[in-house]
Amino acid sequence: MAKNIEILDRKIRIQVWDTAGQESFRAITRSYYKNSACAVIVYDITNRQSFYNVEQWLKEVKEMCNKEIIIVLVGNKIDLEDNRKVSTEEAQKFAEENKINFLETSALNGDNIDKIFDNSAKELVNKVENGEINTDFSSSGVKIGKFPTKELENSLGKNKKNCC
Predict the structure, then answer these.
(1) CA atoms within 13 A on the CB side of 59
(2) Which domains does the chain have, with CATH numbers?
């Protein structure tokens, strides 16, 4: 999935790969780590085991990614507050101890979903501007470039020729 957003008067294109934490995708997830600028680790607030798994995911991210990576811990399913097994305070404390960002969301209702991407993009822009991320290296996970304008996209579509 890719999403274009505007942050701090800049157009940002965010590419997202979702592995859903499935063991069958474990081998390919390592290739995603290589040039990532941000990692979002999601657990289910109604499932304590999913919170326990966060520690392993965090360890992998820190081992395989560049040291400037932005990490966001996300507690999902706040729409199911009555079934909560992991308190906000517990997750917040974990995030603070590990120096990572924290947010709770509801994918069902869309609560705070955009905030994950907006906050991460703002932090990335700030890190680039402060020189903490060197965009000359592909391993930074950040590329500087121009997005096609609507006019260019439209003209490319019109001039497209069918093959064979």
Answers:
(1) 5
(2) 2-158 (3.40.50.300)
User: How far is Cα 117 from Cα 3, in angstroms, rounded to an integer?
Assistant: 9
pLDDT tier for residue 44 given thresholds of 50, 70 and 90: very high
Q: What is the pLDDT of residues 97-134, one digit of tens each?
A: 999 999 999 999 999 998 998 898 888 888 888 887 76
Token representation of residue 26: 């474990």
Question: Which residues are paired to 42 by β-bridges?
Answer: 74
Q: How many CB atoms lie within 10 A of CB 147?
A: 11
How many degrees, rounded to 5, is the angle at CA 115 between CA 113 and CA 118? 120
DSSP 8-state assignment for residue 8 = T
Question: Do 16 and 2 meet the contact criterion of CB atoms below 8 Å apart?
Answer: yes
The separation between CA 44 and the C-alpha centre of its own chain, rounded to angstroms, equals: 16
Residue 85 to residues 17, 25, 44, Cα–Cα distance (Å): 27, 27, 9
pTM for the full predicted model: 0.78
Cβ–Cβ under 8 Å, residues 1 and 16:
yes
**Alpha-carbon distance 101 to 89, whole Å?**
13
